[in-house]
Specification:
The protein has 238 residues and is an alpha+beta fold. 16% of the residues lie in helices and 45% in strands. It starts with a helix and ends with a strand. 26% of the residues are buried. About 11% of the residues have low confidence.
Length: 238
């Protein structure tokens, strides 16, 4: 092979390595991001965003006939996390991190949800990528300074009637969301159901990182958009 040919081949090989390497990693090696949380996931708990689950029973032995009035507390089976789009050398992928570190309460008077307070322990959010987690807990979310994220219901939710067991009810929810020390009002769809002795609720909040003054997560060859989603799966018991 002539020297001139080598001068052509070497750059081509380098380009293929730069493009092909990330493609192989994202499409063949790295695990797919877990699907969005649903009410059916309330019977499992997940320690990170890897999709690996340990089965537990979130439901209890109660029935819808027991009524729904009173104070409910977040219990086992709850999860919260983020979902964002990444681009690595032109290859698109989803980044997902989650935690079971969710606490809070729900107050129901009659058939109206009057108050809801949810706290997420941001220091326990993990994903399958340790380097991503380091950036998340460090410069991006600064969990040492802002260890929690919170949501507080701003407007009551009228259920209309006491739902039957396993009957799903979807309502528009408005509340105050605090991330990284910045609070904004958010509105999103929440689907809930009574499951024996528990109430399960699932929703996704679309957020703009600019609104919460969250630094750009991009770095090196990775580009991350300025919008994302906050996923919630809440299991309440009395």
């Amino acid at each position: 092979m002539s020297r001139r040919t080598w001068f052509i081949v070497i750059p081509v090989v380098a380009v293929l390595a730069l493009v092909g390497g990330p493609w192989v990693y994202i499409n063949l090696i790295r695990e797919d991001a877990p699907a969005r949380l649903t009410l059916d996931d309330a019977t499992t708990t997940t320690g990170d965003g890897s999709g690996q689950t340990t089965t537990t029973s979130a439901g209890g032995t109660g029935t819808a006939a027991d009524g729904i009035e009173g104070t409910w507390t977040i219990t086992t089976g709850s999860q919260a996390g983020y979902r964002v789009q990444e681009v690595l050398f032109g290859q698109e992928a989803e980044a997902v991190g989650r935690t079971p570190g969710v606490t809070g309460t729900l107050e129901i008077a009659g058939t109206t949800v009057t108050t809801t307070e949810v706290t997420v322990d941001m220091t326990t959010v993990t994903s399958p990528e340790s380097r991503r987690d380091g950036q998340f807990h460090g410069r991006i979310m600064d969990t040492a300074t802002h260890p929690t994220a919170t949501f507080t219901l701003a407007e009551p939710i009228d259920l209309g009637s006491v739902p039957a067991d396993l009957e799903e009810v979807t309502r528009t929810v408005t509340g105050d969301l605090t991330l990284r020390g910045v609070t904004n009002e958010v509105t999103f769809e929440l689907t809930a159901r009574r499951n024996g002795a528990t109430i399960e609720a699932n929703g996704t909040i679309a957020i703009s990182f600019d609104d919460f003054e969250i630094p750009d997560a991009s770095g090196g060859p990775a580009s991350v958009g300025r919008d994302g989603e906050l996923e919630l799966l809440l299991v309440f018991s009395r």
